[in-house]
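quick one, 403 residues, struct below
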Amino acid sequence: MYFPTNYVWSLAVVATLNNGGFIDEVDRACKPVLLASQNGDDAGTAELYAAWAAVADRLVAKAADDEAAGRRIGAGETYYRASLYTSQAERLQSPSWEGRNAAYQKSIDLLLKHVELSRIPLTRVEVPYEGSSLPGYFYRAPGDGPHPVVIQWNGLDSTKEMMYYSGFPRMLAERGISTLMIDTPGSGEALRLRGLTARHDTEVWAAAIVDWIEEHADELGADPDRVGIVGWSLGGYYAPRAAAFEKRLKLAVAWGANHDWAAVQEARRNREGENPVPHYWDHVFWVWGVDSMEAFIEKTAGMHLNGVAEKITVPLLITHGAGDRQIPVRYAHETYEQAVNSPRRELRIFDDPEGGTEHISIDNMPYVAGIIADWIGETFASLDGSQVSGPAAAVQPLERSVR
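---
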């Protein structure tokens, strides 16, 4: 809680530090708005963006100097942090803030400079979807392959850039697994720059994405018969729902359970629990493409896994922080208890002193990401006796106790 009275702003600080931000730079970005943070989540977010942008812009100038001097590695690392800071500050803005799209595009441009200079094995991709396309990044595992592929999905307010910042795709690549990070309808670039809004039947998105992987498997070095899915935050609903109905998916991870998001919205209307972003109701109306509470409630009535989780017939990992202030831990138990037809289901609750107790374990994110990556590597290796090419190939599945 860098901002002692402001959970939402503090969440951005923790996410930034766990995704490669430097504590000195983050502190310099936050100090000017300490007083403003006391006025609530919504007030002062434009002021917060300006403070973070000032730090990011100094880094951009430094990176440009490094690039001009031929210091490729230093420039790439610096562009990375400038992108990270811009992205986290943009996430906190109102949908009506006039600078939002420009700020988001800036975060993309800076990240791609980092990718180019740091020679990251990442490629921008477009997945056809209902007359438009879903933008994504494909992070290729080393070697010829064919490699298993993990589709990674956002939650309510994150982006494909944040998936990359997390380091999770790099962790999977070290285990011989490629990652397809996708901005699904209602998130990231799909929402901001293309106007694609969310829907509850996420198997439609999943089918389009798996179709694309199958079509491009050879050029991606991908194994279309070993495709899994991971979703964090609201993705803890999106991913299990997709796995229940899109049977080409071979495993699923709910990185933070979200068994009954419709019920969570009723709780938030009653001011129960914490919100993930400022301007919360404006944000969810934007995500769902509605302009009233009545329309929002109607459009999200199907956002639950009751009667759905039992249709999951592939290995399922559910992780959750015991102290999650946004999504109560009981929802993790509900998904686990209902997923009775999963051949290998595991519930992993993170608590003190281990850490990872907050929402999507953001307080100890790299630690939890590594555990999830290990589970995925082991699970792919166990399917039909297949082997994952890379370090994970030598890892044998372990019996785990359920918590």
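Residues 45-68 form the longest helix (24 residues).
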